[in-house]
Structures are given as structure tokens and as C-alpha cells.
Write a structure and sequence with these properties.
single chain; about 325 residues; mainly alpha; 2 domains; globular
């Protein structure tokens, strides 16, 4: 292994400490790490990220009238993957629901937001733009048609019966434009909604970023093996380095989190270990970090995870 492997654990531990410092309402700076001070990195745990938290709290947490409604809401959110777009739709069409969905109304609402200069899409996990080849009017037409197709042909039942994340991802890949990596990301998001009941460790997603990071770590074989190693080593490796890697209120890193973290470690290495080149040859990190002084809201997690009592205890116990 190269020094990037040790940096992965330092990144995980420090990013998790930043998360808890922000929850406590501490003022910035939340770290002395020069790379983390300058650049934006996601949380060590995927479900703690801002977009995932908005999905869990505002989309999943508001309840659904049926599994098909839950699928509609979660998939619609993921087409744009941006809280501001969801809130803009909510302001214009009311709470997005399958029972009241009308394509023309949603098109008009999205057109209105675009006319006001809004950017509708977040870059993460965006559906590949294959509009012309597939015969759609624009990217939005493709995405709304995809949601309608998935909801309309019984996907919710197939996902609920999937015994593993691999099975759930395969069901999602039956639809045009949904590739291997995106299918696992959506399976994780639909797990937050209770639609995918398989454990997150029952399938291992591997995107281009994590494969790039695997090379930087000195890993010569399949990235899947490295993701599984991260899951298995999450207590021993931080201990070896004299680090404290906090759990997410008692929940360990899953395979989904490990892949997510590996990708971030590859990005971190662009600044911290430029001598270790990956497969993609990406340049230095462009996105700068601008800290907000607003404290993070109380986090919410999927009900099936059972973290509510641990979150309550942390707040009641002085947030330590």
C-alpha cells in the first residue's frame, strides 16, 4: 500500500470529527488539515451528506401514501439531486405526489425555475445525456419519462423482494441510461425510503473515482476487494494510526460508505499526494470550500437503521 491508504483513514476520521463539530454548533475553522480547509469533501458516511439528509428528511420523512408514491418521490428527487429544485417544485405544484402528478404542470414549474436563472441539476450521479440518440426532446423529458416508466411497471415490488443490493441494482439497470454505478447509488437512496430492504453491505458499487483511488493506494486487483477491506479494517486501521474514527451514532461504515470514502480519498490525494497518479489523470481539485456559520440541523436517518435513540442520547448527553 502507498501513503494514500493511510491518508484515507486520516480523511475519514477528520471528516467525521468535522461533522460532529458542526453538529455541536462550533464556529469555523473545524479542522487544521490544509486540504480540508481549502476544498469541499463529502462526509465519511454517505447518509450524513447534505443532499442525502434532505432526501431523508424532506422527501422520505414526509411519508408516502404507497410504495409507488414513495418510489415516485425518491426517483423524482434523484433526477435532479438538488434540494433547491425539489423545494422549487414543492412551491409551484404542492407536495410532489404520484396521485396528483401531471407532466404538463411539472414541465411548466421547471420551465419557470429555468427562466428565473435556476440551475436544476446537481452534477453527482446525473443520468448520462443520451437525449438525441434515444429520441427525447431534452434531458428533462428523458428523466421524467424514466420516472414514469419505473413507477408504472411494478418496480417498487421488485425492489422490495430483492435479497441483496446486487439484485436491486440489476432491477434498476433494466431501464435505459441507468448504468452499473448509478444503479447502486439509486439502490442506496431507495433504501433510505425503505423500498430496498437489503443491507448496504450486500453489494459493492465501484465507480470510476474509486477505481482511480484504488490505483493511488497501490491496489492492483479489483476495486471490490479494496472496498470490502475498508469495511473490514475500519477499527484496526485507525487504531494502528492512532486515530479515532467515530461511527455514525453506532453504525459502522457499509460497503456503500466505503466506496464513497475511497473516491474522496482519491480526490484528497490530488493535493496531499500528487506523486501518486491515478488512472484518470485528474488535475488539482478545483472546488473551493466556503464554510457556513449555520449549525447543521439535527440529523435524520432511515427508520430501519434504528439510530433514533442513539441520536437522542448524544444530544441529551452533551453532544460528546
Amino acid at each position: 500500500m502507498t501513503p494514500v491508504w493511510d491518508s484515507l483513514w486520516r480523511l475519514a476520521a477528520e471528516r467525521q470529527e468535522i461533522f460532529f463539530r458542526r453538529l455541536r454548533g462550533e464556529p469555523p475553522p473545524w479542522t487544521a488539515d490544509p486540504v480540508l480547509l481549502r476544498h469541499r469533501f463529502t462526509n465519511a458516511y454517505r447518509a450524513a451528506d447534505r443532499t442525502s439528509q434532505h432526501l431523508i428528511r424532506e422527501v422520505v420523512g414526509r411519508g408516502s401514501e404507497s410504495d409507488d408514491d414513495a418510489l415516485f418521490r425518491a426517483l423524482l428527487y434523484k433526477q435532479f439531486n438538488k434540494p433547491a429544485t425539489w423545494e422549487g417544485l414543492r412551491a409551484r405544484v404542492g407536495e410532489p405526489r404520484l396521485q396528483t402528478y401531471r407532466r404538463a404542470e411539472y414541465d411548466a414549474a421547471l420551465d419557470d425555475m429555468l427562466a428565473e436563472g435556476a440551475s436544476l441539476w446537481h452534477g453527482a450521479y446525473m443520468t448520462p445525456n443520451q437525449v438525441s440518440r434515444l429520441g427525447f426532446a431534452d434531458c428533462r423529458d428523458l428523466q421524467l419519462t424514466l420516472v414514469e416508466s419505473m413507477v408504472g411497471d411494478g418496480l417498487a415490488a421488485r425492489l422490495a423482494s430483492a435479497g441483496t443490493m446486487d439484485e436491486a441494482a440489476r432491477a434498476l439497470r433494466e431501464y435505459q441510461t441507468v448504468g452499473e454505478f448509478l444503479s447502486y447509488q439509486w439502490a442506496a437512496d431507495l433504501g433510505y425510503a425503505g423500498l430496498v430492504r437489503a443491507e448496504e453491505d450486500s453489494g459493492t458499487p465501484c465507480g470510476p473515482g474509486s477505481r482511480d483511488a484504488a490505483k493511488k493506494c497501490g491496489w492492483a486487483t479489483a476495486t471490490v476487494g479494496l472496498v470490502r477491506l475498508i469495511v473490514a479494517a475500519q477499527e484496526d486501521e485507525p487504531r494502528r494510526l492512532g486515530l479515532r474514527l467515530r461511527t455514525l451514532f453506532g453504525r459502522r461504515l457499509s460497503a456503500v460508505d466505503a466506496e464513497h470514502l475511497l473516491c474522496e480519498a482519491g480526490k484528497y490525494a490530488r493535493e496531499a499526494h500528487p506523486e501518486h497518479a491515478g488512472r484518470l489523470g485528474r488535475p488539482n481539485i478545483k472546488q473551493r470550500y466556503r464554510p457556513s456559520r449555520e449549525p447543521l440541523p439535527r440529523p435524520s436517518f432511515p427508520e430501519a437503521w434504528g439510530l433514533g435513540p442513539a441520536v437522542d442520547a448524544w444530544y441529551e448527553g452533551g453532544m460528546r
